[in-house]
Amino acid sequence: MSSLSPNGACFFAKASESVKWLWHKRLSHLNFKNINKLVKQDKALGLPSLFYLKDKPCTSCKKGKHHRASFKTKQNFSINKCLHLLHMDLFRPVSSMSINHEKYTLVIVDEYLRYTWFHFFMKKSQAAEMIMSFTRMVETQNDVKVKQIRTDNRTEFRNHKLESFCNKKGISQNFSFPYTPEKNGVAERKNKTLIEATITMLNGSVLSKHFLTEAVRVACYTQNRSNIVKRHENSL
Asked: Any idea where the Integrase catalytic domain is (predicted)?
């Protein structure tokens, strides 16, 4: 049962060991600070209204999350509508193919909402067609025009096919300089968090890397629904 402090703040009873670690795993090993934010905002269906205290390290998180310097990029708060700026990046999660024979992942992040989409495919040459198909789909479904696409300088993004498509639709392409991944920091950070979450889940479930694309689906699903955007101070 929760109680109120004199200033009206609500304090929740502590979650038991089994409950807190169960929800930590269900939310793709989400950190406990953000789990408590979801409780406060009542944004996760079925999540018990308890206080989630981390009193010991998670073994799977230690194995799966390699803490390296993240890319700090200036927030572009001039973007005030979804789909006006999309960050994109391509990565190959593992050397071996998935159970569906997919080798590459295209990650797309909306600047305003920080909502993430992903697409799997076998060949890097499919990236341009995937981007064009995705752009048409989200514009039609949301009745909003994509205005900018920000990527790195690789040929999967910088090619005649995609350039012609963007020119016809009036979409500006924003490329980072070669060897400066920090300039595409939003997509790079999302790749990092997705990869860490998927490896962590696979470590915790003792599944092989052939299931990595399925783990990416789960990680992206839970991260989209537990994402706390500072400018909104809310989850999506």
From this structure: 77-236
